[in-house]
């Protein structure tokens, strides 16, 4: 009898899903199966959510992409060699650039890409393609909070303090965040705090709250202004803090004074007594935090709304003090790092502005080109997708790490624009809905097959480590970008394929920027150091900055800025034809467009298809019944889903998750109205009606 070999070593890495980036350890192989167990990492402390426990199942998805696919003349996708696929892409890119100019080609990235991929993708777009037309799906996630944070504090980092600081909180306001479902391991850090949850639904987080504020969708800013008003009138302002550490208070207060509690109640539906209770809980806590999420950000007024909650935090003296603060709960796995390194239309690496001459000169020097060779800012994500295939829009699109056919608003329009392209190229590891529309599909590595770094919601830079070798003919995104760049005439050395080499170049490009990674190295991370940016390169190794703003904010004068904002209401008001608010969001079992989680049997069994949640009386008035089929209809399109009645829902509001494809896409009815500051679409509110339908489920 043969002896068993030595046990396979475990690999320390991180969960592939949300921005907590829970620590995990992987063991096993493709033959025996990969097994995950939670690590004692600070953000998850030995816990995982259902998605984290089942993450290895995606590694063995039965429809995993392992060979390039090229669309034939008969319209079918067929397997091809890498040379054939890459030559097809490069040849078409050369033709389109010659006929339509560099901006005839566009790139769409993702907030789940590693820092190295995001960095090289931005470099590839601006040098190899020469295009300004690059943006990413993080525009649909974090852009409003980023814009408000930059304006208020001079820098955007989701949490300017470690997650573990929340353990000392006495009161926490979760504004538009349902962390009990979207980030379950985070809840253990909130166990000692009184929770105030602001959400139009009685979510799992709201059920654990001491106080649930349930506003009408699209009225969040009115509530923020009202809470600021109460703080001022009831003598709860931190006057010394306001005088010593802020600017713009008086102008912001004048706007808030127009929002007395009874007026706020008439607009939001939240009783004046609950408004007062919330402010007093925060002001008298002695350790309070205001945390915002997608619920307040995904609006055409999202930047102003986040600014309203920052105003409240500043008025109470919370940011920049140990034991209290303001933070934004970043969503995607690398939602923080993904917006720092140049895959956003208006940014260069290091969170630099692409219109800043000094920033352009610095990055151009690292890249070995003249500053004038770098294109300027391009279209934001929805504007880019909306322009595809048009007379003045890109004729080709390369998609990395995103599924806009499901995740973008006004899905019918986006799908039509994707179909109008001369060339659609998708790099993915499963045949997502966008990949199925592509002319060329390139199979790339997924999380447990690659090395790299990610940056979690605290600004902590983490190492992703490989447990498996890629299957079949799968290549890394870095290899794909390298091969395409060389075929387009770029020097091979300009596009490294080794993640550590890319990261070392990223460090140089970020040096001195808002998000300075210059002092972070693979060696330090692999030695177990916990490094939060900014971490400059100093003679004595810089320890990183886990807590920002303790001494000063990042504006030149060191002061935070209040914003003079006012409530405007949603982009689309209710009317007799569309009498209900519709809002969208996530559920515990699924993630983003569902391209990964819908391939995991346990998760799919938990929530197997789309649903629309509404109050029983709303269902009765709409002529639908629990578990029956209904159509949610807006002026843009309709979604078909099963009805779930819930007596805790507002009578004027329905909810649908956005994880499902086909007729079950919630984004068939969402509104594409954009925030003028951030380019964020209005995912969280639009006007709809609900009607019964007969037939089978989508």
TrEMBL record:
GO biological process: respiratory electron transport chain
EC class (word): oxidoreductase
Domain 4Fe-4S Mo/W bis-MGD-type: 8-63
A cellular component annotation (GO) from this entry: membrane
Gene Ontology molecular function: 4 iron, 4 sulfur cluster binding; metal ion binding; molybdopterin cofactor binding; NADH dehydrogenase activity
Gene3D superfamilies the record matches: 2.40.40.20, 3.40.50.740, ADC-like domains (2.20.25.90), Dimethylsulfoxide Reductase, domain 2 (3.40.228.10)
EC number per UniProt: 1.7.99.4
Keyword entries, A-Z: 4Fe-4S, Iron, Iron-sulfur, Metal-binding, Oxidoreductase
Any Pfam family: Molybdopterin
Protein's UniProt name: Assimilatory nitrate reductase catalytic subunit
Gene: nasC_1
């Amino acid at each position: 009898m043969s002896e068993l070999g030595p046990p396979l070593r475990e690999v320390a890495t991180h969960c592939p899903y949300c921005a907590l980036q829970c620590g995990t350890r992987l063991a096993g192989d493709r033959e025996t199966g990969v097994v995950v167990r939670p690590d004692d990492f600070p953000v998850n402390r030995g816990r995982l959510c259902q998605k984290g426990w089942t993450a290895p199942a995606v590694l063995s998805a039965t429809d995993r992409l392992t060979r390039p696919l090229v669309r034939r003349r008969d319209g079918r996708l067929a397997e091809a060699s890498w040379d054939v696929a890459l030559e097809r892409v490069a040849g078409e890119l050369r033709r389109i650039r010659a006929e339509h100019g560099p901006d005839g080609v566009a790139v769409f990235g993702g907030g789940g890409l590693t820092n190295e991929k995001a960095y090289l993708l931005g470099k590839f777009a601006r040098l190899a393609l020469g295009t300004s037309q690059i943006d990413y799906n993080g525009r649909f996630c974090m852009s409003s909070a980023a814009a408000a944070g930059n304006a208020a504090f001079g820098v955007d980092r989701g949490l300017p303090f470690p997650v573990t600081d929340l353990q000392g909180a006495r009161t926490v306001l979760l504004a538009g965040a349902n962390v009990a479902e979207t980030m379950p391991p985070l809840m253990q850090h909130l166990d000692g705090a009184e929770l105030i949850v602001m959400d139009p639904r009685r979510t799992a987080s709201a059920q654990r709250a001491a106080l649930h504020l349930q506003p009408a969708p699209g009225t969040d800013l009115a509530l923020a202004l009202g809470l600021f008003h109460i703080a001022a009138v009831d003598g709860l302002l931190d006057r010394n803090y306001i005088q010593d550490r802020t600017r713009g208070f008086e102008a912001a207060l004048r706007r808030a004074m127009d929002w007395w509690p009874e007026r706020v109640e008439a607009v939001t539906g939240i009783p004046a007594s609950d408004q007062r209770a919330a402010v007093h809980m925060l002001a008298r806590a002695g350790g309070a935090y205001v945390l915002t999420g997608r619920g307040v950000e995904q609006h055409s007024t999202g930047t102003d709304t986040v600014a309203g909650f920052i105003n409240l935090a500043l008025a109470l003296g919370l940011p920049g003090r140990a034991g209290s603060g303001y933070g934004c709960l970043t969503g995607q796995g690398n939602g923080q790092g993904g917006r720092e390194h140049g895959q956003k239309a208006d940014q260069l690496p290091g969170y630099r502005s692409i219109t800043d001459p000094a920033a352009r000169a610095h990055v151009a020097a690292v890249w070995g080109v003249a500053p004038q060779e770098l294109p300027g800012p391009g279209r934001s994500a929805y504007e880019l997708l909306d322009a595809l295939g048009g007379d003045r829009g890109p004729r080709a699109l390369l998609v990395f790490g995103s599924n806009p056919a499901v995740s973008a608003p006004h899905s019918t329009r986006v799908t039509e624009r994707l179909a109008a392209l001369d060339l659609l190229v998708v790099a993915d590891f499963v045949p997502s809905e966008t990949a199925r529309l592509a002319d060329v599909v390139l199979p790339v590595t997924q999380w447990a097959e690659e090395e790299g770094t990610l940056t979690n919601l605290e600004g902590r830079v983490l190492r992703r480590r490989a447990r498996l070798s890629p299957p079949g003919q799968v290549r890394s995104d870095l290899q794909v970008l390298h091969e395409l760049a060389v075929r387009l005439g770029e020097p091979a050395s300009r596009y490294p394929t080794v993640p550590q080499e890319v990261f070392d170049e990223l460090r140089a490009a970020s040096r001195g920027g808002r998000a300075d990674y210059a002092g972070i190295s693979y060696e330090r991370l692999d030695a177990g150091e916990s490094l939060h940016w900014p971490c400059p390169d100093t003679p004595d190794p810089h320890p990183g900055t886990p807590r920002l703003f303790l001494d000063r904010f990042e504006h030149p004068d060191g002061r935070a800025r209040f914003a003079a904002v006012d409530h405007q209401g949603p982009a689309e008001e209710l009317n007799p034809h569309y009498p209900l608010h519709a809002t969208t969001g996530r559920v515990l079992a699924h993630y983003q467009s569902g391209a990964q989680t819908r391939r995991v049997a346990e998760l799919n069994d938990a929530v197997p298809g789309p649903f629309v949640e509404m109050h029983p009386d709303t269902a009765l008035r709409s002529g639908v019944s629990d578990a029956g089929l209904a159509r949610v209809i807006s002026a843009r399109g309709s979604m078909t889903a099963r009805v779930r009645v819930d007596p805790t829902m507002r009578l004027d509001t329905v909810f649908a998750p956005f994880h499902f494809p086909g007729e079950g896409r919630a984004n068939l009815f969402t509104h594409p109205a954009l925030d003028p500051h951030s380019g964020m679409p209005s995912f969280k509110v639009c006007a709809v009606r609900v009607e019964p339908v007969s037939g089978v489920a989508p």
